[in-house]
Amino acid sequence: MKPIHYFNVYLLLQVVSLSSVVSLEPVTTGIAVVTAVAASTLVATHKFLTCKFYECCNEGWVKSNFTGMKETLIRKLHGQHLVIDVTIKSLKAHLKSRQPEKAMVLSFHGWTGGGKNFVSRIIADHLFVKGMESEFVHLFVATLHFPHESKIETYKDQLREWIKGNVTLCAKSMFIFDEIDKMPHGLIDTIKPYLDYYQEINGVDYRRTIFIFLGNTGGNSITQKSLEHWRDGKKREDIQFKDMEEAVILGAYNQKGGLWHSDMIRQNLVSAFVPFLPMERRHVKMCIQDDLTSKGIIVTEELLSKVADELQYFPSDLKLYSKSGCKRISEKVDLIMEEL
After folding, report:
1. Residue 75's closest CA among 126, 145, 38?
2. In which element (H, E) is residue 83 found?
3. β-bridge pairing 104-109 and 313-314
4. Among candidates 122, 135, 184, 134, which has minimal Cα distance to 159?
5. DSSP 174
6. Are 87 and 123 in contact (CB under 8 A)?
7. pLDDT digits 0-9 by tens, 39-53
């Protein structure tokens, strides 16, 4: 339960008091008009002061800082040039449109530790003043919020009402579905109408809303394509979005999970399937450097290698990619520093 804003209550009582004067006192029309104007002014003042101190769905709290978003992604997200390019372009095109045709739907795919959650947080930080703590950013974790296949009908009702209620409060809400590959089959299609080309549904306009799906489906295909590219002697940075898109879509559609045989994919309602490439050892070392720096630890090549050696790599003959990406790095750094 959120705390009561006593200042809001005070102003509301003042408005009620003024309204009482209008309805109960035998005053002249002129005085009534003045009183009504005063009440209107007080309401406007109340709204202004409320939104000055408490989060509201307006430009003061919901922003579009694409420059900062891109700079942060370039500086902190390693080895994911496709992610940066596709994500920024997709969001910018959607949010700069005066009248988007449909909701923005980004589907992030790749193995664990590639940065899917990390990018979601960066997006939230640059679209909402309060970032992930914003009342307009909603995170669903499949294994936490939808753990029982047998309760799928209940989940469907809850999900519909939750999204409808929150978009009614703020049309620019953002919904993140983590572990979508672990969601009960058919559940995510419950929200399909909200992603489709409708101006409104029962009086609610969903076209400015952002939906982000995070999942591991397609990870095998992405890794295989990346490995083939490497074996051909090509630079990782030369991999193009078109090289990966079909593999990601097929993986998401055909692999068991939340998007398996989904109507959303079949009806082309996902705005962009974003591939997260497997992390090479050199990218892992960049993540290690970031973690060391954030903890005020002097960075040396010896220390970077020592931490990197604690992780597991594949394929077994090449040891090219980290099995856990950058996910376990912080705890590995802490462990190594305790041993030194």
Report:
1. 126
2. helix 81-96
3. unpaired
4. 184
5. E
6. yes
7. 555 555 556 678 988
Q: How confident is the model at residue 231 (pLDDT cuts 50, 70, 90)?
A: very high
Phi, psi dihedral angles at 322 (to 5 degrees): -75, 130
How high is the pLDDT of residue 114? Answer: 96
Residue position matching structure tokens 């496709």: 82
What are the tens digits of pLDDT across the range 155-205?
Answer: 999 999 999 999 999 999 999 999 999 999 999 999 999 999 999 999 999
What does the pLDDT read at residue 12?
40
Nearest of 19, 92, 11 to residue 52 by alpha carbon: 11
Residue 228, both tokens = 């083939």
Q: Which residues contact 247 (CB under 8 A, 6 or more apart)?
A: 218, 221, 222, 224, 225, 275
Which spans in 129-208 are helix H? 142-145, 152-169, 192-195
3-state SS assignment for residue 62 = strand
Question: What does the pLDDT look like over 258-300, one tens digit per residue?
Answer: 899 899 999 999 999 999 999 999 999 999 999 999 999 999 9
Answer for the pair 39, 19: CB distance below 8 angstroms, yes or no.
yes
Angle between the N-to-C axes of helices 329-339 and 301-308, in degrees from 0 to 180, rounded to the nearest 10: 120
How far apart are the C-alpha atoms of 304 and 308, rounded to whole Å? 6
* C-alpha distances out from residue 159 to 53, 102, 187, Å: 30, 19, 9
Instruction: Decide: 153 and 107 in contact? Cβ < 8 Å.
Output: no
